[in-house]
Amino acid sequence: MFRKILNFICLFSAVMIQAQETLTLPRAVHLVLTRNPNILMARNNADIAGRQAQIGNAGLLPKFTLSAGTSYSEEESQTPPWDASTGNSAQLQATYTLFDGFGNIYRFQRLQAGRQLGLLDARNQIESIVLQLADGYYNAAAAFENRQIARELVRISQERLERVVNRSEYGRARTIDVLSAQVDLNADSVTLAQADLLLEQNLRSLNLLMFRDVHTPFAVDTAVVIGLKDSLTDILNRAMQSNAALEAARWREKQARSDYRAAIAAHMPRLDLSASYGYSQLNPGWDPAFDDPAKTVRAGATVTFNLFNGLQTHIERQNAHLTLENQEMLADQTELTLERDVVNAYQAFQTSLNVRDLALRSLSVAELNFIRTQELYQLGQVTSTQFREAQLNLIRAQSQLSSAKYDTKLNEMTLLRLTGELVGEDF
């Protein structure tokens, strides 16, 4: 009866899995890129930084001001009547900073660097989330395979228990053999329950990353293709050119250099141009009419030079220089850190490839050993302990291969992130 129930559960689960969506990793990445709130906010922040990088925000465009007004005044005299008048005016004024030591140009360069930083910070955050998704996806794939392995483990243990029970009825098996088989079946059933729980938890975590109902059922694709075959030198060169963290450090250095140059420009004289065109009219009493206004045209230039402002400009220049030195050191440190991370990730990738190959060979040996031991056990030529050991060796080999292939893929994706190729420039 137990075996029939188990077979029904396995068959029902297989039918349900076929009916469910099979979620591939590219599809999961697409859902994350289009629905994850953190990624959407990162894109918004990049757009905000991009909109700030306008020449108008740097003071490179003229300013136009339109003003109009009416004022009424009444002056009390010693004897009536009192004197009253209405002043009406309208004016269009333009101002432009022609020269401020090129400070406006340096401010524009800073804004441009800020736009690039916004894009790089967004890409860095998106890469982190995509790598987190891949880790969760392959954890779910490993959990799925471990559940399949656990089900097979239970099936084999159930067949073993039935065989021992049948043999004991004819006096060819001891009671202790029956009890041993029952204990192993119970242990394997616990393992299956734990595998089911772990798989469900991983699936819910993936749904959360994709920002959809956490109870959405789906299956995962357990196929893994390794395509990275480049040398360490090639990978390192690409990382030095396209890594998001290193590019961001270099742009922060450029931004600090623009700030330093703008601080130097504050010591230079400033030339402002202005021009205005307007109408004005003074009417007796209360009269806001513009029937005979006087035209006014003005143009002028103003030169200002800061002689002394309590050493504020001098202190700002010194602080900007120290900030630039800090950013230069941080850029150098980021480059060294990246080189270390690439070398470590490449070695981990190569090691995982070797481990995967060893796990494949170990699984082949374990399968042959289990098949032979199962045949001898059915003939009564090996003990239940030996059979159980062969069974556990096969399960361990299967689990090791599952972990090895997913570890290899994650190490490959880590290298792709370091080289800036995980999501690319168009994210």
Description:
With 427 residues, the protein is an alpha+beta fold. It has one domain: Outer membrane efflux proteins (OEP), CATH 1.20.1600.10. The protein contains nine helices and six strands; from the N terminus they run αβααββααβααββαα. The strands form two sheets. It has a four-stranded antiparallel β-sheet, with no helix packed on it. A two-stranded parallel sheet has the order 1-4. A hairpin with a 7-residue loop joins β2 (63-75) and β3 (83-99). α1 runs antiparallel to α4, α2 packs across α4 (103-169) and α6 packs antiparallel against α8. The longest helix has 67 residues, at 103-169. It is elongated and about 135 Å long.
Summarize the structure in short.
This protein has 9 helices and 6 strands; from the N terminus they run αβααββααβααββαα.
